[in-house]
Amino acid sequence: MLLDQDVSKGTLRRPEQGIARYEPGAYRADIDGLRAVAVLIVLLFHTGISPLRGGFIGVDVFFVISGYLITKAVWHELQQGTFSLLTFYERRTRRIFPALVVTVAVTLVCAPLVLFASERTTTVWTGLAALTSVSNIYLAVETLGKSGYFAADVYSQPLVHTWSLGVEEQFYLVFPFILLAVSGLGRWRAGAVVAATAFASFLFGIWLTGANRDLAYYVPVSRAWELITGGLLVFLPLPRLPARIRDGLSLLALALILGSAYRFHGGMFFPGVFAIAPVAGAALLIAIGSTGGSHVTRFLALPPFVGIGKISYSLYLWHWPIFVGVALTTARAPTIPEAIGLLLASVVAAYLSWRFVEQPFRQRRIGRTAGSLWRQAGAAWCLCCLLGLGIWHFAAASPQTESDRLATYLTYDDRDVYRRGTCFLIGYQQTVADFAAADCLSPSKVEPNVLIMGDSHAAHLRSGFEAALPQAHVMLAASSGCKPLIGVGGDPECVGLMQMIFERFLPKNKPDVLILSARWADYDLPLVAETLRQVKDKAGAVVVSGPIVEYQRPLARLLAQIAGGRSGVLLVDSRTTEQLQRDRDLQTLVEAAGAIYVSPYRLLCPNPDTACRTMVGDVPLQWDYGHLTAEGSKVLADAIIGTGAIPGARTWQVKAP
After folding, report:
1. 487-501 burial string, b = 16+ CB within 10 Å, else e?
2. 301: which residues sit within 8 A by CB, 6+ positions away?
3. Could you give the CA distance from residue 600 to residue 643 in angstroms, rounded to a whole number?
């Protein structure tokens, strides 16, 4: 999210009375206003209490703005014969590096106060990668790529948001050379080449999003088309349209941005084709502002939006470390007053950063020459490296406390426990063809068969039932985010897996017990009733496992904090409450359908006013917000069997001599 406010050297003009200028090369107050919209969308999304589930699209809006402004500056200099790569990268360094290095340094200094050893290690390497413009690659390959950006506990990673800086800087290592190569072709032919490049990136992004959403989210090749879309406005400007049409298109563009922020969510195949909406909205607003403007662009040019837009880079940098520090301390989502306080604190930090860090470098009061700038940047980079490596070494060398031991479960390896990749598919990375049916769905002819179906909340039951029922044959068919329901829509791989089980496997292989388990939502209830009606004769007994206890922060982290001296009330304050009513509603529905219902929530938490059961021996029952460890899975399986809810299960518990 690196945004260059310099359209071209020496052409900046101040906005007058909040009205944007439309002359070529003039200062665009409406673009600063669009920046404000983008960063506010991101901030509101990150508070966790706004309805903007898709607030991550604010970064896509920033990409378009950046692509437009920088392409305009480079193309203008190329046509004037004044373009210099060295000068270009000097401007980028002045714009990006000072605020980034201060943010990283302060975050690293504060990290030992709020982060555990494993979290500090991730933060150190993310920070050093950010200063080298490769944090997106580091996060994709080493950290989030293992579990997914949306599934990761980003509240323990105060520098995770620097991925967008890496995308932009890697893009700008290549794009100026493309512009240099086409600079002699003329505007229209150059625009055609640039458009073809954008289209190729777009097609690649769609493919990669389907193949591996994590990589598509982070790598610059699948994101380049968003920046180039902004750049295309330099070559293919919008013709001047009547005022009413400009007003209508501006409203449509703003609706595309705000609608995406409201309707999109982390489970979508994003960026891919869905990114067209926010990208098109941003590009259309910029284009209209270049050809006479509209009521929307003039509204965006008002001083409050312009003010936020000017500090938007620092606001983006500082807000997330502040949000993370508070979130880890309170171990819960903020209240509305607290969220407002976080926003205000972020604005204050951003203004100070803009005023005392960004501006001195951009106005050459510090680092007046290119040589002095590079020397200062190199020295700052080295100091941050020494600081980061010192913190990392301290975290690795310090004696392990009970808090540190419990915190190691934050990186719990669920591959073998959940049969991840074979019987439990990662839906956006794998297809039905990857499901190991010969291993996962091979009914026994001599032992009673138990089939567990669903999402990750089914996968975490498998090891427990396998350990608790040594005389039974336990099978698993699961995929991430995949509800075991007939008629469910969404991910085609999930639909394909469920159809294979319901339509082909169950009619031919009637298991003794069929367990349906998922992270149920209220909108699942009608389909649950219909599914039970259709499968009641396809298994000896049909059991529905209800919601499990969930926490707003990983249970392993809460237990580590308590071991470090925090009050046990964290376990109550951080526990979510919506599962209680859903548990009751689901039980009523399941029992009315003639199936068996078990409540993991009540088995682990018989008294909702006090802390639930959280440990088995010295091991946490759950490692993240709600998924079970192997030990926790065995405890829950024993508790379910102990209720008598699974017919015959007690006779399968002791292996014959």
Report:
1. ebeebebbbbbbebb
2. 15, 18, 19, 20, 29, 30, 32, 33
3. 11
Contact call for residues 205 and 222 (beta carbons, < 8 A): yes
Long-range pairs, 488-494, Cβ under 8 A, ≥24: 488/527, 491/427, 491/428, 493/425, 493/427, 493/430, 493/431, 493/432, 494/427
Residue pLDDT, tens place only, 15-27: 333 333 334 457 8
- The answer to whether residues 436 and 411 touch, using CB atoms and an 8 Å cutoff, is no
Contact (CB, 8 A) for 653 and 547: no
Where would I find the H helices in 398-476? 402-407, 415-418, 437-440, 456-468
3-state DSSP call for residue 539? coil
pLDDT, tens only, 80-115? 999 999 999 999 999 999 999 999 999 999 998 899
- Helices 187-211 and 163-182, interaxial angle, to 10°? 150
Q: What are phi and psi of 619, to 5 degrees?
A: -115, 135
What is the rounded distance in angstroms from the CA atom of residue 88 to the CA atom of residue 86? 5
Our CA angle for 516, 574, 113, nearest 5°, is 130
**Paired tokens of 153:** 């506990």
Reading the block at residue 55, the tokens are: 């607030």
Closest to 538 in 3D by CA, of 460, 474, 486, 614: 486
pLDDT tens string 233-274: 999 888 889 999 999 999 999 999 999 999 998 878 889 899
Burial class (CB in 10 A: 0-12, 13-18, 19+), 26: middle
Residue 462 contacts residue 638 (beta carbons within 8 Å): no
Spatial distance between the Cα atoms of 239 and 69, rounded to a whole number of angstroms: 19
* Residue 516 CA: distances (Å) to CA of 176, 223, 535: 55, 39, 11
CA angle 230, 236, 240 (to 5 degrees): 105
Task: Give the Cβ contact number of residue 574 at 10 Å.
Answer: 21
Q: What angle do CA 515, 517, 457 make, to 5 degrees?
A: 130
Q: Tokens 């698993």 correspond to what residue?
A: 476
Q: What is the pLDDT of residues 121-157, one digit of tens each?
A: 889 999 999 999 999 998 888 755 455 434 456 778 9
